[in-house]
Amino acid sequence: MAAPTGHDDRELAHLRWLCRRGAKELDLVLESFLQHHYARLSAEEVTCFRHMLDESDVQLLSWLFARTEPDGEMTKNLLERIRHRVVVDDSA
User: Fold this and answer.
1) Which three-class secondary structure state does DSSP give residue 84?
2) Band of the pLDDT at 4, cuts 50, 70, 90?
3) DSSP 5
4) Which of 81, 23, 30 is nearest to 52 (CA)?
5) Full residue range of the structural domain in which residue 79 is found
6) Of 26, 34, 36, 58, whose CB count within 10 A is highest?
């Protein structure tokens, strides 16, 4: 995976570690998104993604399965991209 502009391999390794969660479903979704789509995120989306990784597994699962919606338009849009990209890409 190519590093986004301004991101080094150590930072990506750290994000990979943060994507490893207690729930296997989150591991699969977040690691897949990081591997295949992270490099195309804008600087603002990268910051949003990092903040999302600070949330609890329960909260992330609730958002990813659309049981609840997060505050903030950017977070909502990023979650929609994650849902779409991972489901569409992994089903192809």
Assistant:
1) helix
2) very low
3) T
4) 30
5) 24-91
6) 34
- Domain presence at residue 1: no
Tell me the two tokens of residue 58: 């329960």
Residues 6+ apart with CB under 8 A from 7: 46
CA distance 7 to 16: 13
pLDDT 10s digits, 20-55: 998 998 999 999 999 999 999 999 999 999 999 999
Are the beta carbons of 9 and 3 closer than 8 angstroms? yes
Q: What is the CATH number for 71?
A: 1.10.150.250
Question: Residue 9 corresponds to which tokens in the numbers above?
Answer: 């391999």
- Angle, alpha carbons 57-59-56 (nearest 5°): 40
